[in-house]
Design brief:
GO molecular function: isomerase activity
Protein name: Sugar phosphate isomerase/epimerase
Helix content: 40-55%
Oligomer: single chain
Number of strands: 12
Number of domains: 1
Order of helices and strands: HHEHHEHEHEHEEEHEHHEEEHHEH
Organism: Maribacter stanieri
CATH class: Alpha Beta
Shape: globular
Number of helices: 13
Keywords: Isomerase, Signal
């Protein structure tokens, strides 16, 4: 597995490749519509989901991606109530992190009721960092994707760093990519975790163009232990955004798991950073 010792090297490679990659205008970056992964506001969402969504809307977010909690995927609200609350605030519930488990049929039904488009498996559903296991999981994903497609949903997968480990010279994430059907499994690339794994997001944009309709835009501190506010970490955010079309990105969710002060202040900083690139 690539280690965190590669951070500075990879950060330099990202910056150096700026002149080599297709360019997206700064105006396009600033006009982009950004979403937020609600795990960033996990405590507040459990305490008062509607008030928290109102605060999120005031920060300028237009899309919402839900996450699992002790009160379910919709923080104690019904799926329909969650979707309607977002809509009333000028936002849209477009995606949700879920588990691929024995309750998946109900998960799909709830997603339809909420009005969201994507259901994203948030982590590897089985243990085993082997090529054979990843091939088996890929088939499970294809089956789940077919089931979602029949209901008008889109199934996808969100990575962490461990998917980029290797076995016998094969990167496990690449095995997953090569064995999933593009029209059935829609990848959500967490850019922060890719860099933590010692890999380059641009490499994956080029190797699998158009395969990443969803992003987690997340900066990571230089030690790779915690997420941090935009511009304070190792991810070249401007370079990523300039190449979002190559990746196929349609939905960009900002996620931050740790904060310098509060989630609201961190997200305010992140949105201002994007406006002032």
């Amino acid at each position: 597995m690539n280690t965190r010792r590669n951070f500075l090297k990879n950060a330099s490679l990202l910056s150096a490749s700026t002149l080599l990659m297709p360019q997206l205008s700064m105006a396009a970056i600033k006009k982009a519509s950004y979403g937020v992964q609600l795990y960033s506001f996990r405590d507040a969402m459990l305490e008062n989901p509607k008030a928290t969504l109102e605060k999120i809307a005031s920060l300028g977010f237009k899309e919402i991606e839900s996450a699992g909690s002790k009160l379910g995927y919709y923080y104690g609200l019904t799926p329909s109530e969650m979707g309607k609350t977002c809509k009333a605030l000028g936002m849209k519930l477009t995606s949700g992190h879920v588990r691929l488990d024995d309750k998946f049929e109900q998960t799909m039904a709830d997603a339809v009721a909420s009005g969201q488009e994507y259901v994203i498996c948030s982590s590897m559903p089985t243990d085993g960092q082997t090529v054979d296991n990843y091939k088996k999981v890929a088939e499970q994903f294809n089956v789940a994707g077919e089931a979602c497609k029949k209901l008008g949903l889109k199934f996808g997968y969100h990575n962490h760093e461990y998917e980029f480990e290797s076995e016998d010279g094969q990167i496990l994430y690449d095995v997953l990519m090569d064995n999933t059907e593009e029209d059935l499994v829609h990848m959500e690339l967490d850019l922060g975790w890719v860099v933590v794994a010692g890999k380059e997001p641009l490499h994956y944009f080029k190797k699998y163009p158009g395969r990443f309709p969803l992003w987690h835009l997340k900066d990571m501190d230089i030690h790779g232990k915690e997420s941090t506010e935009f511009g304070k970490g190792i991810l070249d955010i401007e370079l990523m955004l300039k190449n979002k079309d190559l990746s196929g990105a349609k939905h960009i969710y900002i996620e931050q798991e740790e904060y310098a002060s509060t989630p609201v202040e961190s997200m305010r900083h992140n949105m201002n950073y994007l406006k002032n690139i």
